[in-house]
Every structure is written in structure tokens, then in C-alpha cells.
Design goal:
A hairpin with a 6-residue loop joins strand 6 and strand 7. This protein starts with a helix and ends with a strand. By secondary structure, the protein is α+β, with helices and mostly antiparallel strands. The strands form 3 sheets. Strands 2-9-8-5 form a 4-stranded mixed sheet, with no helix packed on it. Strands 3-7-6 form a 3-stranded antiparallel sheet, with no helix packed on it. The radius of gyration is 23 Å and the shape is elongated.
């Protein structure tokens, strides 16, 4: 009976020790939504992102794929794109730095439908 009690105590001690470990996680996030595979050429192309948490460096947009376009205001979470052409796919990344130093990003792709 005494050995069973000691075993239970040892198991509890091991579980507690396992729970007292350093854990690392980002403390902010960015989100750009889902890819847009059917963007009409005649419709405006607008990037819509959001950020939350402990942001140290404000989120900014960059282009990571496709022919060169112009991001009208890279520091604006909701900004327009100019210079895109029908029949192409463009990828954009929203990047921010958290207060803990982690860099977070999310990407979204827009496929511009060909003109018919």
C-alpha cells in the first residue's frame, strides 16, 4: 500500500515537472484571407488583411509572385493594386514583427481571369 502511494506521488511529480517547461509561441498574428482564383479583370484588386496581438512593427504588404504590380499603400491593411493584367496570377505577403521578435506573415494569391 505504501509503495502504491509512493508511485502515485512519483507520477504526479513527473507530470508536474513536465508541465514546468519553457514554452515559446508568437504573440501576434496576421491574416490575409483565402486565395482568389476567379478575380475579374474589370473588378478592382484590393488586398484586405488584418493583424492582431502585440505588434512591434506594423504589418506591410509585399509582392512575392507574378509579374510586377504596384501596391498603392503597402502600410495600409486594405490597399489597392494597380498594373495587373488578365491571365496572370499574383501573390502578396503581409508581414509583421511581434513584440517578442517573431516575424509573422501570411500570403494570398489572385488569379486574374482572361478577357473573353
Amino acid at each position: 500500500m505504501k509503495k502504491l502511494s509512493q508511485l502515485k506521488s512519483l507520477i504526479i511529480l513527473i507530470l508536474l515537472a513536465a508541465g514546468i517547461s519553457d514554452s515559446y509561441a508568437q504573440n501576434c498574428t496576421v491574416n490575409v484571407g483565402i486565395d482568389q482564383p476567379n478575380q475579374c479583370y474589370s473588378s478592382p484588386l484590393t488586398l484586405n488583411g488584418n493583424s492582431s496581438g502585440l505588434i512591434a512593427t506594423a504589418a506591410t504588404w509585399t509582392q512575392t509572385g507574378g509579374a510586377s504590380t504596384t501596391i498603392v499603400d503597402p502600410a495600409n491593411l486594405g490597399t489597392s493594386i494597380s498594373g495587373y493584367l488578365a491571365g496572370n496570377t499574383y501573390t502578396y505577403r503581409l508581414t509583421a514583427t511581434c513584440q517578442d521578435g517573431n516575424v509573422v506573415y501570411d500570403e494570398v494569391s489572385y488569379t486574374i481571369l482572361p478577357i473573353t
